[in-house]
Design brief:
The chain is built from eight helices and ten strands. It is of the alpha/beta class and 251 residues long. The structure holds SN-glycerol-3-phosphate (G3P) and calcium ion. This is Glycerophosphodiester phosphodiesterase.
Length: 251
């Protein structure tokens, strides 16, 4: 897998809208994804979890408490119950019509418009989620041709290994958030290389040496979550491959 992927866009670093354009709209909603596309992103970043009736939904937290007018765990509620909620007013009353999106509804509306950076969020809570996501992508023919159109990432390395076995043509990204260069050992980087093409670190752990080491091991790197223009300038100097931002107009 190492080094086998290519970033299809002419511009490096590629621009990735974090949960859409989460700085401007309620995260992971249609409004947020539309805004990010309007601002010219190459990819939308989304978080996927699973409902009580085994449907894939786009939401960041394992509970609905922060980003809707309801309470409870995503895994304890059905898709119908989740989609009855207001997923926008917490951000601003003008977004009161925003709903939690199903993964299939999201793909219907956005898959043809942009690349997708799909995060399997807390997959250990949702046994079988890798198969579900893989099947949805396969069914729609999204794994053919331009393979970098879809990238699947997670903090959960076991889940990523499972996904890679299911769909080896889809590039995998390992999310990391340890601090300092020593926080990511060569041994670890080598272990990622059996299944991943990207190593995606939190911005707080970035330095030039770390990026060089990641590249040296044959990975591409997408950095999150970038909110300031001055960080964009710095990251460009470090030759990173992509920037994940809440404000997709700071690129
Ligand atoms: O894309 C990386 C980033 O989204 C990971 O952190 O918490 O925002 O999902 P989080
Ligand atoms: Ca995420």
């Amino acid at each position: 897998v190492k080094g086998s992927t290519r970033i299809p866009k002419s511009q490096i670093p590629i621009k990735i809208g974090h949960r859409g354009a989460a700085g401007y709209c309620p995260e992971n909603t249609a409004a947020s994804f539309k805004k990010a596309i309007e601002l010219g992103v190459d990819y939308l970043e989304i978080d996927i979890q699973m409902t009580r009736d085994n449907k894939l939904v786009i939401i960041h937290d394992p509970t609905i408490n922060r980003t809707t007018n309801g309470k409870g765990h995503v895994k304890d509620l059905t898709l119908k119950e989740l989609q009855a909620l207001d997923a926008g007013s917490w951000f601003h009353p003008k977004f009161s019509k925003e709903k939690i999106l199903s993964f299939s509804g999201f793909l219907d509306e956005f898959a043809e418009k942009t690349g997708l950076l799909i995060e399997l969020k807390k997959p250990s809570l949702y046994p079988g989620i890798e198969e579900k996501v893989a099947n949805e992508l396969l069914k729609r023919g999204l794994t053919k041709g331009d393979t970098d159109k879809i990238i699947v990432q997670s903090f959960d390395q076991n889940s990523l290994k499972r996904f890679h076995k299911l769909l080896p043509s889809v590039p995998i990204g390992v999310l990391v958030k340890k601090r300092g260069v020593k926080g990511l050992s060569n041994k670890e980087l080598q272990s990622f290389s059996t299944y991943a093409a990207y190593v995606n670190p939190k911005i707080t752990m970035i330095n030039k040496r770390l990026i060089r080491r990641i590249h040296h091991h044959g990975f591409k790197t997408l950095v999150w979550t970038v909110r300031k223009k001055k960080d964009v300038h710095l990251l460009k100097r470090y030759n990173i491959d992509g920037i994940i931002s809440d404000f997709p107009d700071i690129f």
